[in-house]
Write a structure and sequence with these properties.
With about 270 residues, this protein is an alpha+beta fold. Helix content is about 35%, strand content about 15%. The protein has 2 domains: about 100 residues, Ribosomal Protein S8, Chain: A, domain 1; about 120 residues, 2-Layer Sandwich (GMP Synthetase, Chain A, domain 3). The protein has 8 helices and 8 strands; from the N terminus they run ααβββαββααββαβαα. Pfam families: Nfu_N (PF08712), NifU (PF01106). This is Scaffold protein Nfu/NifU N-terminal domain-containing protein.
């Protein structure tokens, strides 16, 4: 019996020796990638943290895209192709925020997203094509008024970091002197978030109005200029600026306003 077993083992070894070496089941880069997730205030949005650099820019600007956008981001395109239930993606420095529709659940779609992110890193493709780098929305331009410069500073230094912590972003769009309205664009987990309206009115609007009396309100608009928050809660309280109460009060300079907001001032 022992001799028979040895002959069979030798025969199997010879047969296997004639076969090509099997390819590894997984790319080594995929095996070493450990992706974590973090919840956001938006139940339809989730942060994926691969433990590696995702999208780095000098001013820490993220990249937002939807399935209908031009294919400027290989990573986003890979995610969109992996599932029709993904509605948008936001790429941060070290995270990817994915938004899904209500017809699926995270338990079902998470493995697909994990696989798409791992495939991206194994491919060696950039997260965003260099020709599609996002321009800074809060860069202070030569023709910006003092009010616009202050709005951009507050958005960049005080507001944006808190929003990005939850996997979203807020971008400056415009300011109208005649109405005092600041228009911004919400991205990432902020899109479709039930608490976005409260954050916009009680957080962003109140802060801007507190430090910049010329600001009388904040609106969130999409790429077409339409209101991003159609269902604004009516019970949201905001601190409105009354121009009559401000009459006779000394106006703070741009430098004094920045210091009051805790923002380092530099010429």
């Amino acid at each position: 019996m022992l001799r028979l077993a040895l002959r069979r083992a030798a025969s199997s070894s010879r047969l296997l020796g004639n076969l090509p070496n099997p390819e590894p089941l997984l790319n080594p880069q995929r095996r070493t990638l450990f992706i974590q997730t973090a919840s956001t205030p938006n139940p339809q949005s989730l942060k994926f943290l691969p433990g590696r650099l995702v999208y780095e820019t000098e001013d820490e600007r993220g990249f937002s895209s939807t399935p209908s956008d031009p294919p400027h981001s290989p990573l986003s395109q890979r995610l969109f192709k992996s599932s029709p239930n993904i509605t948008s993606c936001y790429l941060g420095i070290d995270f990817v925020t994915v938004n899904i529709d209500t017809s699926t659940s995270w338990e079902i779609i998470k493995p697909t997203i994990f696989s798409a992110i791992m495939d991206h890193y194994a491919s060696g493709d950039p997260a965003v094509l260099s020709s599609s780098e996002v321009k800074s929305d809060t860069e202070i331009l030569d023709d910006d008024s003092e009010v616009v410069a202050m709005i951009k500073e507050l958005l960049e230094v005080r507001i944006r970091p808190a929003v990005q912590e939850d996997g979203g972003d807020i971008k400056y769009v415009s300011f109208t002197d005649e109405t005092g309205i600041v228009q911004v664009r919400l991205e990432g987990s902020c899109v479709g978030c039930p608490s976005s309206s409260v954050t916009l009115k009680s957080g962003v609007e109140n802060m801007l109005m507190h430090y910049i009396p010329e600001v009388k309100g904040v609106e969130a608009v999409d790429e077409e200029g339409s209101n991003q928050l159609q269902n604004m809660p009516e019970d949201v309280k905001t601190e409105e600026w009354n121009p009559e109460e401000d009459d006779g009060k000394p106006k703070m300079t741009y430098e004094e306003r920045l210091k009051a907001a805790g923002i380092p001032f530099s010429e």
